[in-house]
Specification:
The protein has about 550 residues and is an alpha/beta fold. The chain has helices at about 30-45, 60-70, 95-105, 120-130, 135-150, 165-180, 195-210, 230-235, 260-270, 270-275, 285-295, 320-325, 350-360, 370-385, 390-400, 445-460, 520-535, 550, and strands spanning about 10-15, 50, 85-95, 110-120, 155-160, 185-190, 215-220, 240-245, 410-415, 425-430, 435-440, 460-470, 480-490, 495, 505, 510-515. It binds 3-methyl-2-oxobutanoic acid (KIV) and zinc ion.
């Protein structure tokens, strides 16, 4: 956030895609993916990025530190020096260890924030915390003061505020302000309230909490009853000036309030709300696609703003009405959210520099090696495809970024399939030992055969949970995108317990691949997911640990058939 913002009608957008969003069942991002999403969020213009929960794991802490350093400082991208630098925030339970972990991760940012929380509802205090209300108040005083001794910007959340006793909530919040909190966030943790109730809660907090005029009031709603956006808007109308949101509304259970819905409602209904944000709405579609690709969580087609059908009248459904008057069925222009992006004026002969400039405009800052690889792939694509769009470029780079650490890479693939015989794939991979490995396998279809051949080389027992394929652009020469999600065959190997709510989940690994040949895209996506599974299992190229194909030569995949 720009700390000098004093416009009383400015709503700070606090994005928690990388923290609450990453707690979604099935979402699991590599550090490279988190960094890329954080960069895209900064370009989008969010005021605060909640980059993770540093006490949750060393990986989380490292991810937050990296984002603080690389996105939370003015030099996060060439040519970006005039852009606002977002606040980088880390979540912490109200205890010293968590607060220290959060501070140690965010302190590298130009504008760091510690966000500490403790539950205040009777049910949470009694059964989760096993603490008396008086103990909770003491903890709030001590831990907010401790966080403030480390960091000037401290956010406090009374978890499950939506089901807390109002008088107790006022007391806790006024103590948090006295102890130095600068933002008070009011979470409807279990998505229980209705818009009328939540609006009244915010109004009453503003009317009853001592010192409230010194802080920013924030709202954080979950979508269990489908009311997260409505509740957030009710909170903003009641005087809150920070909205906590995620891209595509991903998050615990039914998710969090979605950024695109709140921002576009404030934008489209400006006259009603009279509130502004710092979001560049033309970036919304791009960031939505990136988050969906990297998390492996598809966007439902009828999702407001970013679903494939959200602007379907563009495809001719209501065309007659549209021709007579554009606003017959249209309350927003697709260009406003960055849909229908222009075709690139980049030909087959465009150089590396032009590619770099275009990628930077799209928010991708690549290292020299990454740019070389992207350029190589761009040339290959330009040979096959007449018109290259921004969406093609994003697919091309997204595929590269989402790979993370690569133990095995595709070096060659040949498939025979059709109605006349058994689908057979021959796969050549480059392994962590620098050698090439070749295997052939038959399957029920060409993708199945390819995955069997890959398994025979990599040898990591796993369960394929999801396999999705779709075209990036229209036309017969379109790039195909494939996303897969898998988990280790032994689920106990990758369990993650959330320090917020104690839920244990089996970690899943997503992979993404793009190519004009969808079998090649499928192989790349599968390898990307397997590489992540290997990295999470502690394999390293130079760490001396045995590669999986040394431990088990032949994989089996009887259970899957994409
Ligand atoms: O939903 C919730 O209560 C939270 C808090 C940690 C803010 O995510
Ligand atoms: Zn939450």
């Amino acid at each position: 956030m720009n700390p000098t913002v004093i416009d009383p009608n400015y709503v700070r957008i606090f994005d928690t895609t990388l923290r609450d969003g990453e707690q979604s069942p099935g979402a699991s991002l590599t550090s490279a993916e988190k960094l890329e999403i954080a960069r895209a969020l900064a370009r989008l213009g969010v005021d605060v990025i909640e980059a993770g929960f540093p006490a949750a794991s060393p990986d989380d802490a490292e991810g937050v530190r990296m984002i603080a350093e690389q996105v939370g400082n003015p030099m996060w991208g060439e040519g970006e020096t005039t852009r606002r630098v977002p606040i980088i925030c880390g979540l912490a339970r109200a205890n010293k260890q968590d607060i220290d972990a959060a501070w140690n991760a965010v302190k590298y940012a130009a504008h760091p924030r510690i966000h500490t929380f403790i539950a205040t509802s009777p049910i949470h205090m009694r059964y989760k915390l096993r603490m008396d209300p008086e103990e909770v108040v003491e903890r709030v005083k001590d831990m907010v003061a401790y966080a403030r001794s480390l960091c000037e910007d401290v956010e406090f959340s009374p978890e499950d505020a939506g089901r807390s006793e109002p008088e107790f909530l006022y007391l806790v919040l006024s103590e948090a302000i006295k102890a130095g909190a600068t933002t008070l966030n009011i979470p409807d943790t279990v998505g229980y309230t209705t818009p009328e109730e939540f609006g009244a809660l915010i109004r009453n907090i503003i009317a009853n909490v001592d010192g409230i005029e010194k802080v920013i009031v924030s709202v954080h709603c979950h979508n269990d009853l489908g009311l997260a956006t409505a509740n957030t808007l009710a909170g903003l109308r009641a005087g809150a000036r920070q909205a906590e949101v995620t891209i595509n509304g991903i998050g615990e259970r039914a998710g969090n309030t979605s950024l695109e819905e709140v921002v576009m409602t404030l934008h489209t209904r400006r006259a009603l709300f009279g509130l502004t944000t710092g979001i560049d709405t033309t970036q919304i579609t791009r960031v939505s696609r990136m988050v969906s690709t990297y998390t492996g969580i598809p966007v439902q087609p009828n999702k407001a703003i970013v679903g494939a059908n959200a602007f379907a009248h563009e495809a001719g459904i209501h065309q007659d009405g549209m021709l007579k008057h554009q606003e017959t069925y249209e309350i927003m222009r697709p260009e406003t959210v960055g849909l229908g992006r222009s075709k690139l004026v980049m030909g087959k002969h465009s150089g590396r520099h032009a590619l770099r400039v275009h990628l930077e405009e799209l928010g991708y800052k690549l290292s020299k090696e990454e740019l070389d690889a992207a350029f190589q792939r761009y040339k290959e694509l330009a040979d096959k495809k007449k018109v290259i769009t921004e969406a093609d470029l994003e697919a091309l780079v997204g595929d590269q970024v989402s790979r993370g650490e690569e133990f095995y890479t595709l070096d060659g693939l040949q498939v025979a399939c059709g109605t006349m015989g058994m689908p057979t794939a021959t796969v050549r991979l480059k392994g962590p030992d620098g050698q090439t490995h070749v295997r052939a396998a038959v399957g029920t279809g060409p993708v199945h055969a390819t995955y069997c051949a890959i398994d025979a080389i990599v040898g990591v027992p796993n369960k394929l949970l999801e396999f999705n394929v779709h075209a990036v652009t229209e036309g017969i020469d379109a790039l195909g995108e494939v996303t897969v999600r898998l988990q280790a065959e032994d689920p106990t190997l990758h369990e993650r317990t959330s320090p917020q709510n104690g839920y244990t989940r089996v970690r899943t690994f997503g992979g993404y691949g793009a190519d004009t040949d969808i079998i090649v895209a499928s192989a790349k996506a599968y390898l990307a997911a397997l590489n992540k599974l290997l990295a999470a299992s502690g394999f390293s190229k130079d760490g001396g640990s045995s590669t999986p194909n040394e431990r088990s030569q032949v994989g089996s995949r009887k259970e899957k058939n994409p």
